[in-house]
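Fig. S4 source data, part A: sequence.
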Amino acid sequence: MRKESFDFLKKLMDTISPSGFEDEARKLWGERTQKFADEVNNDILGNSIAVLNKGGNPKIMLAGHIDEVGFMVKYINKEGYIYFSTIGGLDPHIVPGQRVWIKAQKGRVLGVIGRKPIHLIESDERKNVTKIEDLFIDIGAKDEKEAKSILQIGDPAVPAAGFDELNNDLGVSRGFDNKGGAFVISETLRILSKSNPKASVYGVATVQEEIGLRGAKTSAYGVSPDIGIAVDLTFSTDYPSINKNKVGDIKIGKGPVIARGPNINPKIFDLLVEVAKKEKIPYQIEGISRGTGTDANVIQLTKSGVATGLVSIPNRYMHSPVEIVSLKDLENVSKLLSAFVMRIDKKTDLIPH
């Protein structure tokens, strides 16, 4: 991966951006992406929309949500311990014992999610998962007054885990779902800015996907695209405990995952596969027999309907502090999308026959 792109990815992964609190990531994404776009604007919900070749035909929307899962401060007790709820879907099995960053008005506050030690946990308790409402964050405050002088109710938090590299060109971080997708959208615009696409391209870093695909719904309505491609993460099945009979056979490092099913326009699917073959980009296919649960779901149903595709990045350990992706997969998704856009013009027929 080129150095500037790699440095941007690291910075983006380090931002705190739970659903509804994406401003830090959105600002970084906009500042970088505006170098390659004709304009970058934010809408009322907080989506960041970059436009390339405005006025071109047809209109293509590329969407990658920039929000991540996290926590929210709900209650501070008299002793200064902080009780919290989750933002998006988190596995309560792995929450205790984590370090967290709370995003307060004065900056990041480090805390730990505490639980009594194994020695003091009764045998019956060990069999059960501790409920989120029974866990708490310890920031070292001496009492409620001190804690409230540092943070306030409604402050978001995320695991205190940033980006790192593993062997074989793999990256590990919290929040690859889906700041990895937002990164790909910015990279795709960078590549396209050196070409001359006939289509107008709207690259959107959508917000609030993790709590109901909310940003994609409003931004797709505002953009009103002819074609919409969502970029998200999908489950890799190349590690123990995953049932391939149920999930499919998807491997990290083996290329973009092109979705096929009722949420996907069949001509978009065929064209993505054709482009991947022509450009010699490795790819995988994922069959999804219902709505995908991604931004593609709401983009497809915008107004009178949008020709929609979904290209995903294989990911291990989704919604955990140690999500793993292949940096080569990130690059290849960007290459696939940019080559796909260059194949589209106003004569492209997208009506299923």
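Fig. S4 source data, part B ends here. The mean pLDDT is 97.
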